[in-house]
Design brief:
Rev_trsase/Diguanyl_cyclase; alpha+beta; elongated; 3 helices; Viral_Replic_Matur_Polypro; about 35% helix; single chain; about 80 residues; about 15% strand; two-stranded antiparallel ribbon; RT_RNaseH_2
Length: about 80
């Protein structure tokens, strides 16, 4: 399944996987886990674009991840 901004959502888990770091599931990990669960329960609706309507390209970058998606406004 597509998960918007997955790299940023999983950042607390990535910290746990680093070599030499003690595995400690804290508040930040639990909060990220709960947010991902909530997102998966109510996923966005994905469908092909409507021809002739403008597309929007969203891009995000930071020091640990980059991502983007293509969107189109839906009337109604």
């Amino acid at each position: 399944r597509f998960i918007s901004n997955l790299a940023m959502r999983c950042e607390p888990f990535n910290q746990l996987l680093r070599k030499g770091i003690k595995f400690e599931w804290g508040f930040e990990c639990q909060q990220s886990f709960e947010r991902i669960k909530k997102y998966l329960i109510n996923p966005p609706i994905l469908k092909p674009p409507t021809l002739g309507r403008p597309l929007l390209l969203y891009i995000t970058v930071n020091e640990s991840a980059c991502g983007g998606f293509l969107a189109q406004y839906e009337e109604g």
